[in-house]
Amino acid sequence: MSRKKLCEYYWAPFKSDCEELLGRFQQTESVRYEEFSAIWREMDFSSVFLSGTQSDHEKRSFTRLTFTIAYRYILPPYSFQIRVGGLYMIYGLYNTQSIWPKEKIRIALKDWYDVQKLIADAKSCQHLDVFYIFKRLLSSKVFCFTAMPQKLTFEASERVQHNVNEEFRDRKNRVAELASIEMLEEISNVHDHYEKLKKSSVPPSSGVTLLNLTYLVQKCAFEYQQWQDKIAAEKEKNSKKETSQKSESSSRADMLAAIKSKSYGHVTKGMKSRRHRQVEKVTSGSGTDQALFRQKRRPPSLRTRTWQNFGKPSKPEQTQEWLLSVMEEDKNALKRKDIRRFKW
């Protein structure tokens, strides 16, 4: 079975199994690993690797598919509990896979910040189960940091899309939903009904609720909204400051580069064989075109200076190497003696 057909065949069933597991974990209203592992064993979730795949190539492709689907549940826009369940699910799938060497989990660098923020939030809330599982994954070198969460192929447009389950989506405006007009009206009606029942049955001094409960709820929601807006404004201000600093540094670098290019543009490069020689700049008052540079003359040698000072002879004397000490008047001495071998 090809990778494309395997993805189309197993994507929807495995995604429904993952959502069933996370849905049961969501009903526990807990982020403890003990609760998740109990649901995992109850569903026998590790048996997903005992599918109909036979060859090692199909098993490895199916394992990559499971990690690709489970990887989506640890990222926004899912709620904190679902993301923790996704992390637990990745931990279980990695340790129960049936291939060797074990397949690593591809994680994009753009998503690494969201994963680190999830772990930081869990650690600040003293959810040490989440922090421990994450450290176990890091120590086992489970993650493979890549540019994209999936490999780019020519069939990228035909991939199955991952639809977000609305039941698992994180609701960021829960305080605003609590302080909505309908909710405040409902609280006000219940509070008035309670006051009427209290007046008819118990003395007025024995009240256990606040008199202006609706106003206090609305005030708390408004203060919380102001606090969120303040944090968002500070983040935006810091981001603008960083971008302005980067723009200033880039403009300064461009200015320095322009100055260097102008200064280096006036220098004329000589030939490679003449770069070690010194040049002199020739200035002329006339308008005629003359050479700007000329080569510096070398000083004359000792032989040239000697001939110039003492005079060069018209005809150099020719001497015999074997008659250096013989006078010129001795004509007979110019003739070499006939040296013959001794005869017996």
UniProtKB/TrEMBL annotation:
Residue numbers spanned by region Disordered: 234-253, 266-318
Polar residues bias (residue ranges): 303-318
Compositional bias ranges of the Basic and acidic residues kind: 234-251
GO biological-process terms attached to the record: snRNA transcription by RNA polymerase II; snRNA transcription by RNA polymerase III
Basic residues: compositionally biased ranges: 269-278
A Gene Ontology cellular-component term: snRNA-activating protein complex
Matching PANTHER family: SMALL NUCLEAR RNA ACTIVATING COMPLEX, POLYPEPTIDE 1, SNRNA-ACTIVATING PROTEIN COMPLEX SUBUNIT 1
Protein name: snRNA-activating protein complex subunit 1a
Organism whose genome encodes this protein: Cyprinus carpio
